[in-house]
Amino acid sequence: MKKHQYILSVAGFDPSSGAGITSDIKTFEAHGLYGLSVCTAVTVQNDIQFTECKWIEADFILKQITSLFERFEIPTVKIGIVQSWKVLKQIVFLLKELNPKITIVLDPIIKASAGYGFHTKESQSELDDIWRFCTVITPNYDEIQQLYPEKSVEKTVQHISRLTNVYLKGGHRPDKKGFDELFTNQEVFEIPPIADSIFEKHGSGCVLSSTLALYLAKGETLVNASIKTKTYVEDFLNSNKSLLGTHSLLADLNSLKSNT
C-alpha cells in the first residue's frame, strides 16, 4: 500500500471552494499528495463577492496545528489568509518549533479580489521576523506595494529577498502583465507567460501558492518548482471560461505514474 505524503494548508474557508483551504486541498490531491488543513477564518463569499469574515481565534488555530503534528509527518505547509501579522508570527514560530526543517510557502494576502481587507498597517513591525521563517512568499503586485508603502516595489523586493525568497506574481503587473519573477538572495529569474491569453479565476493566487508548495514537497528545486507552477496555473486558468477553475486530471495521472 502506498504511503501518504502529507502537506498542510493553513488558510480560510471559502464556500465556493475557489480559494482557501478547499481550493488548496483540491490542488494538492490533483498531484497525488494528501492535503491536511487548518482553518483560520470562515468567510461569506462566492466567486464574485466577499462580504464577511469571521476569524478563528489564534489559540484555536495553534491547537489545530499541534494536533495534526502529533499524528502526521508534515514537511511542507502553505499559509493563506490570517487575521494579523501578529497571529501569523505565532503560526510560523509554532511550525518551526514543531518541525525546524519545515518548508513554509506564504501567500501574504492583504485584500480579497472583491476588496475586503485583512491585515492592518499598525502591525508591519512584525514582517521582517515572519519573512525569516518562510521559504518563499508569493505576493502579487498590489500586495508587494502594500507591505512597505514607503518603499518602491524594487526596494521592497530587495529588502525581503535578503530575508527570504520572493515569487512575485505578475497578474496585476502594470507593464509586462503575466510575467512572474522569482527573487532569491543572489539571482532573479523571469518566468514569462506561456499561453497567449488566459481566463481569470477566483482564487488563482491560492492555487499558485499551493502548487508551488506541493512541488517543493516533491523535492523540486525552487526554480524548477516555480517554472512547473507557472505551467500548471496557466492550465488551471484556461480549464474553462468561468471564474471557477477545474484541476487537470493529467496532474493526477502523472502523480500516480511517478509513484508506481
TrEMBL record:
It comes from the Bacteria. SUPFAM superfamilies: Ribokinase-like. Its EC number is 2.7.1.49. One of its GO terms (molecular function) is phosphomethylpyrimidine kinase activity. It holds the Pfam family Phos_pyr_kin. GO terms for biological process: thiamine biosynthetic process. Residues 14-240 form the Pyridoxamine kinase/Phosphomethylpyrimidine kinase domain. InterPro entries: HMP/HMP-P_kinase_dom, PM/HMP-P_kinase-1, Ribokinase-like. One of its GO terms (cellular component) is cytosol. Keywords: Kinase, Transferase. Pathway: Cofactor biosynthesis; thiamine diphosphate biosynthesis. This is hydroxymethylpyrimidine kinase.
